[in-house]
Specification:
alpha/beta; Dihydrofolate Reductase, subunit A; 11-stranded mixed sheet
Length: about 230
Amino acid sequence: MRLLLDKRSRPLSPGVLSDDDLSHLYAWPAGGGMRANFVSTLDGSAVGSDSRSGSINTAADGRIFHLQRELTDCVLVGAGTARAEGYRRGDKPIVVVSRSGQLPESLTSGDGDVILVTCASSGRTEGDDVWVEGDDEVDLPAVVARLRTSGMPRVLAEGGPHLFHSLLDADLVDEFALTLAPRIVGGEHTRVVAGEALGGPAGLGAEIVHLVEEDGSLLGLWKVKTPGP
């Protein structure tokens, strides 16, 4: 994997990256924050023909995916994506957002922590592994604040596209890690953000932090700019 661009105040020199270099590049800012991580084809699809992101993943994307999981405090994911992608419990807590309060079957057993986040209309009762935030919709700002006070300030949001839209709309995303996979799939597949337009005619702004490449996959990290008044 080689570094193409690094815009930080103390950039690394372009060239082949060591494991320590990659950990340095993808480390969270001091104080943590919300980082969204997605993969997309060159023609803008977030999934392959099977409607799963796993089918368009590359080895480089998988390497950075696992690295970011190592560096985060928890993984935030929508129940639909967790169900479609077959999420399993692991070393880091998985925080599942579900308006209906239904936990995907693949996450109901195994080792590792899972927190189900839902709203009062689901009828679920608050507990150590069930957080009730909001009345008819999940209150995402309250969830992020609660994660921080619970010792999980570094949050990795892995989707899906509808949850990513909601997080952006609530101005909760600090960074966006995106892999452009060297694939073209066609069709009418969902993009990484699904929902109404954001941020006015020009959309939301972003500032590149770094760009790396391996075997045709381009992997970038951007700071998401706060929308103006």
